[in-house]
Amino acid sequence: MNTVLLAFGSKDEQRIDELLDTATSIVDPDGTIVLLHAFDRERYDTIAKRLNVDNAAEISPDDIARRSRIGREIAERLDRAGVDYVVRGAIGETSDAILRQSELEDADLVVVGGRSRSATGKALFGSTAQKVLVEADCPVTFVKEQSETKEKAAAPA
């Protein structure tokens, strides 16, 4: 895969390793990972304020994504691994931002994270990952959040 779009947000901190392992194992050696941090307006303004941005008009969503804590952490890991990447930011509904950016980047694959939810939970609240899985023009890899009980379970003797 030449272009892999890796969507991330603040809720993905628990699965950064899995998301990065997935994206880096799939992208071609000369390919690029597009890191996309989609923000709702409130989250964007909160991060901009934390970064001491005086005039939000002077900074782009790409800048905020690059300067956010999770964006910096992911970028640092990719730098150490020697993987080519670009950082993008988007304001708006997460699934729409992922779908729009995957088209703009002509992504060969999208990597998204999420958690298991009941059918009722999906029907009531929707699911970003579910919408991306159904509507993306390219293949999508879903990285499921590991449950705490699975992570803490002892290995069989």
UniProtKB/TrEMBL annotation:
Family membership noted in the UniProt record: Belongs to the universal stress protein A family.
Gene3D superfamilies per UniProt: HUPs (3.40.50.620)
Organism whose genome encodes this protein: Halobellus limi
Pfam families, per the entry: Usp
Protein name: Nucleotide-binding universal stress protein, UspA family
Residues spanning the membrane: none
Every UspA domain range: 3-144
Domain of life: Archaea
